[in-house]
């Protein structure tokens, strides 16, 4: 797979997961789904696990987007805002309620994703030492 094609696959995977998760959060939870996982209590815990897991995946995917570090951090901030926005809009969806706890879980998931892909977000000290001041200047100047 060429690098350009691989870059597009990463972008589409990130965008696809974000859109699918947004749609899932802004729709009523089907009663059949609650029953299929064993009732309200298992459904509750599965939902909370999904909040953390999906935002962790989104943060890891964000780290791998073919963008500058600055733009990846802007998208990460967007993920934090997304968690709050979807909870706000859930109050208008029948059968859903807005929850500040879920915003916290979304933020926790995003932070966990950053931790899981730490080197991609920040690099290691060894990586930073390998870049000479001349290389840094060339990067800044174009």
Question: How would you portray this structure in words?
Answer:
There is one protein chain. The chain is mostly helical. It has one domain (3-141). It is 79% helix and 0% strand. It is built from eight helices and no strands. It is elongated.
List the helices and strands and how they pair.
Layout: H1 3-25, H2 31-36, H3 40-63, H4 69-90, H5 100-116, H6 118-122, H7 125-130, H8 133-141
Helix pairs in contact: 1-3, 3-4, 3-5, 4-5
Provide a brief overview of the structure.
Helix 1 packs antiparallel against helix 3, helix 3 (40-63) runs antiparallel to helix 4 and helix 3 (40-63) packs across helix 5.
- The total tally of domains equals 1
The number of strands is 0
**How much β-strand is present in the residues?**
under 5%
Which residues sit in consecutive blocks of at least 5 with pLDDT less than 50?
Answer: none
- Average pLDDT across residues? 89
* Number of separate helices: 8
Category by helix and strand content: mainly alpha
Features:
mainly alpha; 0% strand; elongated; 142 residues
């Amino acid at each position: 797979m060429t690098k350009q094609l691989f870059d597009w696959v990463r972008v589409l995977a990130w965008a696809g997961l974000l859109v699918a998760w947004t749609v899932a959060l802004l729709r009523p939870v089907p009663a059949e789904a609650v029953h299929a996982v064993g009732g309200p209590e298992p459904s509750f815990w599965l939902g909370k696990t999904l909040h953390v897991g999906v935002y962790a995946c989104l943060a890891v995917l964000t780290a791998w987007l073919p963008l500058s570090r600055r733009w990846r951090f802007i998208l990460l901030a967007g993920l934090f805002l997304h968690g709050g926005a979807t909870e706000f809009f859930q109050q208008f969806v029948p059968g859903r309620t807005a929850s500040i706890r879920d915003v916290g879980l979304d933020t926790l998931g995003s932070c966990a994703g950053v931790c899981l892909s730490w080197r991609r977000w920040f690099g290691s000290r060894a990586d930073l030492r390998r870049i000479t001041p001349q290389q840094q200047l060339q990067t800044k100047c174009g």
